[in-house]
Amino acid sequence: MNTATELLRANTRGHLLELTIECEMISAEAGQRLQIQLERAVASRDRIVSHVRLDVSRVLAMSSAGFEALLRLHRTCRDARIELRVSAPGAEFLGLLTRMGFDRLFAIESRATA
C-alpha cells in the first residue's frame, strides 16, 4: 500500500490491525484520502481483529480534515466494538491531540510504551 497516493500501511497480526500513517504532513486533501484509506482498512480487516493500533510516529502536522479522519476512525471502531489506540505521537503532535480532546476518545501510547 505504499504508493504516492497511499498514506497508510496496514498489517494484521492475530487480533491486532496495525495501521501506520506514512507521511509527516496531512493536508486537507491528504486528510480526505486518509479517511478513505482508514475506512477501507477497517472494513476489510479479518473478523478476528479486536484491536486497532494507529502509528502516528511520522506525523508532524495535520489539517482539520486529518483530525476528522481520526474522529471517524474512532466512531467506526467504537461501533464495531474494536479497541483503538494511537501509538507513538511526537511531543508536538501529542500536544495537539491532547488540546483537541482526542485523548478522551481513545488511548494514546507514548513512544516508550508503544
Q: What can be said about the biggest beta sheet?
A: 5 strands, mixed
Helix fraction, binned, reads 25-40%
Strand content: 25-35%
Number of strands: 7
> Which stretches of 5+ consecutive residues score pLDDT under 50?
none
Number of helices: 3
Q: Rounded to an integer, what's the Rg over CA atoms?
A: 13 Å
- Quaternary arrangement of the chains shown? single chain
The strands making up the biggest β-sheet line up spatially as 1-2-4-6-7
Mean pLDDT: 92
Strand and helix order: EEEHEEHEHE
- Shape annotation: globular
Q: What is the CA-CA span between the terminal residues?
A: 23 Å
- Which structural class is indicated by helix and strand composition? alpha/beta
Main attributes of the structure:
single chain, 114 residues, alpha/beta, five-stranded mixed beta sheet, two-stranded parallel ribbon, 3 helices
